[in-house]
Design goal:
Elements: E1 2-7, E2 15-16, E3 20-22, E4 25-27, H1 35-43, E5 48-53, E6 58-60, H2 61-72, E7 77-79, E8 86-91, E9 95-99, H3 101-108, E10 114-118, E11 124-125, E12 130-136, E13 140-142, H4 143-152, E14 158-162, E15 167-174, H5 180-194, E16 200-208, H6 211-223, E17 228-232, H7 243-250, E18 254-258, E19 269-273, E20 276-281, H8 292-301, H9 308-312, E21 345-351, E22 367-368, E23 371-372, H10 373-383, E24 388-393, H11 397-403, E25 410-413, H12 421-431, E26 438-443, H13 451-460, E27 469-474, E28 477-478, E29 482-485, H14 489-492, H15 502-507, E30 512-516, H16 528-533, E31 536-537
Parallel strand pairs: 15-16, 15-17, 17-20, 21-24, 21-26, 24-25, 27-30
Antiparallel strand pairs: 1-5, 2-5, 3-4, 6-13, 7-8, 8-12, 9-11, 9-14, 10-12, 18-19, 19-20, 22-23, 22-31, 26-29, 27-28, 27-29
Helix pairs in contact: 2-4, 6-7
Amino acid sequence: MIFATLPLAECEGATLAHSLKIPGLVLKKGTELTAAHIAALSEAGVGEITVARLAETDVKEDRAAALIAEGVAGPGVTVERAFTGRANIFADAAGVLVVDRAGIDRLNRIDPAITLATLGEYAPVEAGRMVATVKIIPYAVAGDLVATASAHGQEGLLRLAPYRAMKVALISTRLASLKERTIDKTVAVTRERLRPAGAKIIADIRIPHEAGVLAEALRKVRAEGAELVIVFGASANVDLGDVVPRAIEAAGGRVEHFGMPVDPGNLLVMARLGDIPVIGAPGCARSPSENGFDWVLRRTLAGLAVTADDLTGLGVGGLLMEIVSRPQPRRAPQPDISGAAAPRVAILVLAAGRSTRMGGPNKLLATIDGEPLVRIAARHALDADPASVTVVTGHMADKVGAALSGLDVAIVHNQDYAEGLSTSLKAGIAALPGEIDAALVMLADMPQVSPEIITRLIDAYDPPAGALIVVPTVAGKQGNPVLWSKRYFADLMTIQGDVGARHLIGTNAQSVVEVEVGEAARLDLDTPEALADVGGEIVRTLNVPATYVVEDK
């Protein structure tokens, strides 16, 4: 194929490289130019255009894409009609995508003109989901390259392993420390995991955490026709001699592998009881969030054997929880059913400003119904029951601190408060306890941010679902306060001057979840007029008593 800018007279029969628009005529790229096209372009004063001229042995893009896609597609997938040099491949049923990674790499190295992109190895898909696409980069490709690529994939470089409607037995062991409702919720979560495959739970057995009793239960469910057994141990497996692996062997089974390089999911046991796969589930399998157990379960439900080599090959990409930008599917907050502690969220109340727009007095000592704004903010924070509340002071620190008397808050003084908001933010973060998971940053002049609003923001924080920054909105516009995962604390500590962290929200949009809370998210009291509108009153003398007690409202 020749790709060049040629005089118009030499372009008949060539393929237009770029779209053209002239009065009365629009030609899209890829158009095969006719004599009528050439005449119209000449009349419009066009002297030369960029075209692709095919050699006799070249194959046009759509035909090339179709031939290669048909060559690589194996059982369980369908190739749709090619267009614009692209042939998409779709799943015929729900299941797991199986790809020949090495073969696909070799195909993509035949020539830069030929590309094949797929979903990830063993990706779960539903019927009708696009699983791969062949794209031809230029308008045509040499016929011998197409033949090589088509033949290269004749064994099928990708196929679908459809789910099987398996009969699944669940066995849960009990200890006194494990609540029955935790087992109930574990069963509910597992039922949801099995639903896409059409698998059914035929047994829900709950027994003491003893190897002998568990071995007998394994033999029982095997005799009753189970095709997959999942064991949820009351305590984590820490050794091949532990209760679950020992019971599997006592029942006549064999442990094929213990442990895998996926986190969460390390402590998984893969075993077989005759021909029946047995999965000793790690503790994280009680949670609905994706973990290593899902990877193994999906393959098993699709009838794919999971070997020791398969498990030990999961390390690259196996870190699931500590990647800030991981694009996990967003979902509504789920109840905690894993037995793990809820995230520890601290609240920072920034109260160091000089109130320059208020015209002199410290607005944080202004009162509503006799209570200073800073105390209202701190009290609302405490009523939301966070892990801790820290107030950052600066301007008139003694009087602001006195207004907080009797409240269970930590007070941190920002001696650099005159340099702007960023210094208070950094002082507050630096003072937080090390075990904190996230911090909600409040401004002390927003009295309508209620405990209920604060609780809603904290509840929306959901790291497994990718919700690492929680932003309140009013009619779709972002406001305050904002909750930040500790993964962003280092970025917050780099901010300079009298600015907040708004730019970090924009640059980390994939980790942001918005919560509509109404006007409270944008109502701050910067002026005497704004304060008066909410019934507030300036304290002109600033004679705040050494102790301040306000009856809880």
